[in-house]
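Lab meeting, action items carried over

1. Structure of the two-component assembly. Owner: GW. Status: complete.
Input record:
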Amino acid sequence: MPKFFRLFSLWATIYFLLSSVFIISAYGDEEGILYTDTIIHEDMTWSGNIAIRGIFVVGRGATLTIKPGTIIRFHKIDTNNDHIGDSEIRVLGRLLAGGTKEKPITFQSAEKNPKPKDWSYVLIFSSAEKNFLKYCYFRDAFSGLQVQFSTATVSDSVFTHNNEGIRFGRAKITMSHNLVKNNNLGVRFTRMEGPVEITNNIITQNRVGVILVPSNQNIVDFFEPGRTGKPWNEGHLLIESNNIFENIDYNLNLGTKQKWDLAIKGNWWGTGQSNLIQEQIFDKLRDIELGKAIYKPFLEKPLATAGPR
Amino acid sequence: MKKIIVLTLAIVLLLSANSFACVGRTLIIGSLNSSNDKLLTQLMAVIVTERTGTTVEVKYYDNHAQLFEAIKKKEVNILPENTGRALKLMGMKAGEDADSVYSVVKKGYKDMFQLIMLKPFGASVVNPDDKLFVDVPTVDSSVLVNFPVLPRVLNKLAGIAADKKYPKLLASVEAGDEASKVAKDFLKKKRMI
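Predicted assembly:
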């Protein structure tokens, strides 16, 4: 075996041993089990108090199950000095986080004076499995939850005091009965190949409620040449039966480069007057390069069943 | 042993990456401390934040040499550059008009520093005697991999310095008003955000 590989293997063994020792030595700490940079390849179950300082990776093939009432605290570390905490959970395998109404699962900062961006995110990335999050509470993060190239069901959860509540890219995601409140950006999404369903959520008091972010990398080109007047998202993205209201700058922002119309019918926008609804939407009426948000017909009153059950 | 090597490589790759391309986190705009640079910087910061949702951080520098050093170290991704300053930095002579100066420094910056000059903010109405040079949003080309939409967004500010309200905005910043608020109010009134 070449010398390089022998040295590398030695270093790897030491790395593993040190990591393991650190995890084991953290048992019994007041904040529960502490994980530093860690990757798991076997199934694991969390309950009680968990602390993370660094990146915790759920490897491909492994499932992380989180029991109701578990509190996960992320320590603020900022190795690249970008003022965003680096601690995160990265799921390449599978995440099953099923809290209950009485015992939600909490993801939050470990800092004494918690602030948005204290930690990065729970990132479900390129996971081949069905991920499931229910009655989870995300706060103090850069993005509470990010779902990219993955499948996830997110329901009855709360996203608050984050830079972004939830962000997703090319994902198959069902998001229902959540409360997204007091974030800089409530829901942010890109790469809209879907299918995505956003229903029965309350999205309020964020700086921007829902924002679309363009991508130059869409692989599936479902925009036929010359296609006009027909919303691009039919069959791909459903945003319906939500209460999206009283967000500070805009309830909906089509961002930039979204030149196709967006169907977003059947939602409550905080008022029954269409001119006031339009005021809170950034679309073609403000930038001719953008598509139009087709928000009519809209709900005349708030949907009582929206939000966590 | 082979398994350990593969496994460890996977760990190193996973743990050493700060972010994936599509979960990009922040952009840094570097600026000089003058009111004009502050205002242009905040116009860029606001429009990028509002139109793309990207987190933008602004860093101020005392002089052009410091700012450029930060660019070279990749500590700064974007700056409002002035074609006059750029000429001086590259040791070139001024052309006959603003367009030719712009073309020369644009090519020079790309070739020498891999910096992309976008459409100019325009000739400032504040300095009518200095028509030869213009301010230009300038982006580190490596940033465009993660933020390919940046040129489209920043180019919306083309000609903004020639807006008839620009001197008033500048006066407001010089009087001590917060440049970010001045920029945001202005762009909102123009329905650009």
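2. GW to write a short summary for the group page. Key points so far: Residues 10 and 16 of chain B are 10 Å apart (CA to CA). Strands of chain B lie at 26-32, 55-61, 78-82, 115-117, 135-140.
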